[in-house]
Amino acid sequence: EDFAEWWKRCRASGEFTDKRLNLVSVLARIGAVFQAGSAPQFLKNAPGGAYTGGFTSKQRTAMDYIAQNEAEGRKTLAYASSPELMALMQAELDRRGVHSILHTGLIPLKRRGAELNEFRFGAASTALATFGVTQKGHNIPQATDILGLNRLWSPRQESQSEFRALRPQQRNVLRIRYLHLVGSLDLYQARMCAMKIDSSRCGLDHGSPEWSAADFTHWVTILDSFCKDIADLRGIKRHYLRASLCAASGKNHEQD
């Protein structure tokens, strides 16, 4: 909501129509919106602080899916951008009795290799990884499922993460799924990745694009669409929404 109101003010003032565009400011605010939708427990410098309401619906859905896969004898390679979130989820999965390992940048390299082998050849049914760690050089054909807890702006990292399991040794039909939270940046990041992949394929293979020319939009237009969808989803003006939320929490919204 705060981002949407800020963006509308900037657009109305003409700030984003000339060469004075402050991309650093835009990216910083988009980063906060992304964090709020994917790992709000670790949101920094937010006016209301980090989220303290337990796991989000998306995170609970991810863990339910992982637990179901283990019950079916499947191995899940789950990806997210936040290593802290993966550690938090591992604790909850342990509580549920789901055997998982961490494969993030917060884990020492030697330990990462040993634990990854526990997923490949051992009893661990789940590898909780971050996108940046599982890049070129990793072969994980033992995974039967790939689960993305958030999207990225570039398809390259997503594709590389998927290719870790798409190896010649893969003996299963690999299931690849991404969780999209309604009202978050997930849908817009997915659209951006799809368009970039389409552009690359057309340029290299002279193939027929999956998207029409009208579907390719400037990033400013995508942000405009995001803010409009937020308003439509809420069905309420920002001021009244904030007043309602503050009343529910017992806070004085005029002081926020």
Structural class estimated from helices and strands: alpha/beta
The oligomeric state of the chains shown is single chain
Bin the strand percentage: 5-15%
Strand order of the largest sheet: 2-3-1-4-5
Mean pLDDT: 80
* Low-confidence blocks of residues: 251-256
Compact description:
This protein is an alpha/beta fold and 256 residues long.
Q: What does the model show?
A:
With 256 residues, the chain is α/β, with parallel strands linked by helices. 49% of the residues lie in helices and 9% in strands. The chain has a five-stranded parallel sheet with strand order 2-3-1-4-5, with helices on both faces. The longest helix is centred in the C-terminal third of the chain and has 20 residues, at 186-205.
Topology of this structure?
Elements: H1 2-12, H2 23-38, H3 57-71, E1 76-80, H4 83-96, E2 100-103, H5 109-121, E3 126-130, E4 145-148, H6 155-163, E5 175-178, H7 186-205, H8 219-234, H9 238-249
Parallel strand pairs: 1-3, 1-4, 2-3, 4-5
List key phrases describing it.
256 residues, five-stranded parallel sheet, globular, disordered C terminus
